Amino acid sequence: MDYETEEILFSKNGEEAMIPASMTKIMTAHVIYEAIENGELTLETRLPVSERAWREGGWATGGSTMGLSIGETPTVEELLRGVIILSGNDACIVLAEGLSGTEEAFARRMTELAHQMGLDSAQFENASGLYAEGHVISAADLARLARMEIDKFPQYYKFYSEREMTWNGITQQNRNPLLGSLDGADGLKTGHLEISGYGLTASAERDGQRRILVINGLPSSQARADEAARLMRLAFTAFDTRTIEPGEKALAVLPVWNGEAREVGVKLAEPLSVTAHKSAFSQAEVAIVFDGPIKAPVQAGDRIATLEITVAGKKDPVEAPLIATENVEKLGFIGRAIEGLSLKIGNETAS
User: What does this protein do (predicted)?
Assistant: First the structure.
């Protein structure tokens, strides 16, 4: 996915619901960011580690853990870093219980918020991504979620690029294979369950362009690393984003009926960015669509047409509003009479 335009550049089963494993934790963190924004928590809020969090997410489980101990009171910031950098299942449970009372209630909040955000494929049964029947989200919705997180909460996105974290004297590494190995990579989250295979939601930025990648179902961590690097490199080398600025001059002039001028200029209302395969730009088709002739009066800034750009590989044209560049006043009575007479004479001549 291109970050700026939200264009899906390549998709294979991208809209199908899948088991996200620990990529779930992007949504867990997002809920906490929203809670901080709403004043329900602060980064400095301390939350107690319950026996359940320790038992179901601690070292003894053999799964991803922050290594919390019963009775500890880490801060929300420490727990967030434990979720993002270490993929700590215990940290997820502590945050869930601290905000919603139970992990089950927190999971319902995750799902409700996801649907409010337009992530319709999402259904969460827990905060960690451990297997549960019906716990799913599509790759496309994970990409959209990642984009929203980067866009809305840039102050917390920095956690995703941290390479390691130490807790209780034990240092663990971030599992994201692109960090430090691929130029511009700065997030987001790995996932793995036996039933789902190895997955990754990743993002990278180069030369002012950002791409977001989601893969899942790889057979090993090495295969995940190799395929993620291959696809992310392709996302930058094979695709490009080009922007058309509104400018001062009209893109075109359109006919006006019953106006003091017979034509009116149109231009873009705002910059238009198009992301596509580099080879597709030379074959792109451009059209201006409008109901015409345009009836006077027309005010500068009125939307009177649409620019459509058809690019190979895209299901639908890229569309952008076109606005009038100047005022065109309506003809007075005498002018309209002359205009009507001209039309009548023209029709008689044609017949």
Answer: Removes C-terminal D-alanyl residues from sugar-peptide cell wall precursors.
